[in-house]
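In the design runs reported in the main text, the only information available to the sequence generator was the tokenized backbone. The following block is the verbatim input for one such run; it is reproduced so that readers can re-run the procedure and compare outputs position by position.
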């Protein structure tokens, strides 16, 4: 029985099981867990913003207060850049590649992340999260944007931290999905969900139905169909929270391309790819509606993609509707 095992111990045990894993990766992951704990502490203080000061202003101690997404972004960069495990990073919050300063050692991994997903929900005490994706750098020399433009199928690891009623870290290295809950009293992530499997078919659908007027026939007909099937609607508006609930309970999340977002809204490298890796490892599926997310060849860092993700049978069913209606968006 591994339940209750600290993350660091679990990682070391995994490392022993899989000859491919190196201590390097375990070190990288431990640094990431530190960043997660720092962000978690700050997110939990968000309600005190009027006391401590709002973003762009100074707090009662006279310190400059940052917006939480900027804070999460710089926390991850600062925590990860000196570990010696990375050759570079890319973040939803930064335009180009984040290089490792010359005075720090470099490693062979590349980290991509959405530092704070669902950030518009912070002010109203709804769960937000951090999403990350790790790949290997396959070229020698300077790190360029091209190094990051690899299909999601090449991810070495992916995961998210959800700052909810408790803080949880969920990740995969391609050997199943494991969830750890932060015990604030000891400051450790403890194994709470070993080998998460998602339902083959779910009872929940999650989509922003306020966008109905912009949808294509595929989305319209699919949603009409699943309503007839009696699925329940649940939409928080933080991808990480909607995804996490559906992963544990079974269900499907959709953010299709529509007239307002013709390429979809969510980001391929920071959101869709990491969650697609996780959902597949849990027995689910992720699709653009036309193809498997993990097979998409990225063309740019901030590329957007339509996303249908969750229980296998639900995603496959949605694909049938989207495939039947592909050209409909042009009018
Ligand atoms: P972020 O906060 O990182 O910009 O992401 C917001 C995303 C995602 O979390 C959520 O699923 C989606 O935006 C919600 O979009 P709508 O408000 O258009 O439904
Ligand atoms: Mn996001
Ligand atoms: Mn974000």
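Verbatim output:
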């Amino acid at each position: 029985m591994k339940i209750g095992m600290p993350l660091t111990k679990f990682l070391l045990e995994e490392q022993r099981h899989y000859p491919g894993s190196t201590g390097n990766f375990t070190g990288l992951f431990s640094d990431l867990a530190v960043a997660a704990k720092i962000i978690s502490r700050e997110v939990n203080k968000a309600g005190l913003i009027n006391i401590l000061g709002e973003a762009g202003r100074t707090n009662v101690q006279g310190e400059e207060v940052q917006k939480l997404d900027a804070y999460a972004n710089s926390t991850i960069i600062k925590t990860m850049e000196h570990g010696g495990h990375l050759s570079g990073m890319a973040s939803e919050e930064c335009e180009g590649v984040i290089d490792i300063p010359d005075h720090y050692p470099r490693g062979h991994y590349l980290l991509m992340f959405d530092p704070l997903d669902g950030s518009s929900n912070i002010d109203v005490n709804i769960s937000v999260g951090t999403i990350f994706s790790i790949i290997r750098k396959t070229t020698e020399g300077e790190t360029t944007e091209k190094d990051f433009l690899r299909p999601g199928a090449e991810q070495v690891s992916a995961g998210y931290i959800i700052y909810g009623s408790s803080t949880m870290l969920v990740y995969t290295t391609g050997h199943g999905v494991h969830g750890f809950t932060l015990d604030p009293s000891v400051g450790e992530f403890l194994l709470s969900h070993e080998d998460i499997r998602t339902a083959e078919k779910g009872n929940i659908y999650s989509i922003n139905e306020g966008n109905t007027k912009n949808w294509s026939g595929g989305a319209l007909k699919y949603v009409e169909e699943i309503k007839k099937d009696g699925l329940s609607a649940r939409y928080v508006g933080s991808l990480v929270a909607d995804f996490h609930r559906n992963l544990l309970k079974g269900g499907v999340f959709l953010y299709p391309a529509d007239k307002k977002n013709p390429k979809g809204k969510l980001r391929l490298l920071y959101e869709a790819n990491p969650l697609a890796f996780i959902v597949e490892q849990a027995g689910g599926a992720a699709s653009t509606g036309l193809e498997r997310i993990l097979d998409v060849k990225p063309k740019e860092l901030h590329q957007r993609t339509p996303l249908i993700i969750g229980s296998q049978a639900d995603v496959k069913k949605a694909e049938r509707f989207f495939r039947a209606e592909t050209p409909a968006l042009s009018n």
